[in-house]
Amino acid sequence: MSDLQNDRARSDAIMGDRRITLEHLRAFVAVSDHGGFQRAGNELARSQSAITQGLKRLEDILRCVLVVRDRGHFAGLTEDGHRFIGPAREILVKLNDTVGIMRQQDASDRIALGVLDDFEVEHLNSLAARSLESNSNLRVEVVSGLSEQLKEQFSRGALDIVLYKDMAEDNRVGCECNMRVIREEPLLWVARERFRFDPSCELPLVTFPDGCAYRRAAIQSLETTGVKYSIAYSSASYENVRSAISARLGVGILPKSAVGPDHAIMSKDVGLPTVPNIRLVLAIRNGSARFDRFAGDLHKMLTGPK
User: Which H/E stretch holds residue 253?
Assistant: First the structure.
C-alpha cells in the first residue's frame, strides 16, 4: 500500500469516509424503512434511479452489499446492511435533533406522534381539529413507520405518543409510560391452499420488512420450534403481501382481520408452530397532561363510542 493510501486509510479511520453524504444515508434508510426503491424515492421526493444510484454508490464506498435485490426489487437487508442501518439512522436522527434545536418552538405546544404505516391519514385531520379546539397553538409532528422503529424512537424520547403493534406477551417499550391496549386479535398462518407442512422442509415465508411485529412473531415461533424457513417475499404493503400469498409464493402470517377471501387459514394440526395474539397498543409518555388529553382523543377515535 502506498504512503498516500496509508494516509487516506488513517484519515478515514479517524474522520470517517468523507465521500459518504447525508443523501447516501437517507437513501439507504428510506429503502429499508419503506421496503422498496420506488417508495423510498416518493418519501424523499427523488427519482427511483437516483435512490438506486445513491445506494449503489454507498455500497461501493463501504465495499459491501447492504441490500438484497431480487430482479431489481428490494428483498431485505444483508448481514452488513443490518449492521449498518442502526448507525446510519442514528446519524440522521442526531442531525434532525440538532436542526430542531435551532428551530425550537415552545415545547408546551408540541406533540411528537408516531403511528403505523397503515394508519389512515384521514384520521389525523379529525384528530388535529379536535385537539386544536382546546389549544390553538398546538403543533403535532407525525412520524410513520414499522412497530419496532416507533418503539425505539419512543424509548429514547424522540416521540411523545406512539401507536404500535406487538405480541400479547410483550409488556414494555423501554421507558416509563402509560400503555393502553386498543384491541387484540389472533395471528394466523395463511396460504393459497391448505396443506400439511413437513417440519423437516424449509418454509417459504411471505412477510413484512424488519421491524414489523408480524414478522417478528412468525420468525420467533419458527426459530423457537426449530422450523427452517427462507424469506420468499417481503413488502411493507398489506396488499402486496396478500397478493404474494394468493400467487403461491409462500406462507404468510396475518391478523384475522387482514386475511384475504382467497386465502386458506392453516389450522393448528398442519405442522406449523402456534403464534401469539397481536395487540394494537397506545403508549403515552408520563409527565404531561397535554399528552394525556391528546392520547385520550386518539383513543376515542380508534375505539369509537362505548
Answer: strand 251-255
Tell me whether strands 177-185 and 278-285 are parallel, antiparallel or unpaired: antiparallel
Nearest to 191 by CA among 233, 223, 152, 141: 233
In the predicted model, what is the mean pLDDT of residues 284-289? 82
Which residues on neighbouring strands pair with residue 74, listed in sequence order?
Answer: 69
CA neighbours closer than 13 Å in the CB half-sphere of residue 282: 18
Beta bridge partners of 73: 70
Q: What would the pLDDT profile of 110-146 be if each residue is shown by its tens digit?
A: 888 898 887 776 677 667 666 666 666 778 888 888 8
Distances (CA, A) of 114 to 66, 134, 147: 27, 21, 9
CB atoms within 10 A of CB 100: 14
Give me 200's grid cell. 423437516
φ, ψ at 277 (rounded to 5°): -65, 160
Backbone φ and ψ of 17, nearest 5°: -80, 115
Say how far apart CA 24 and CA 34 lie, in whole Å: 15
> Grid cell 377471501 — which residue?
261
Residue 254: helix, strand or coil by DSSP? strand
Backbone angles phi, psi at 241, to 5 degrees: -65, -45
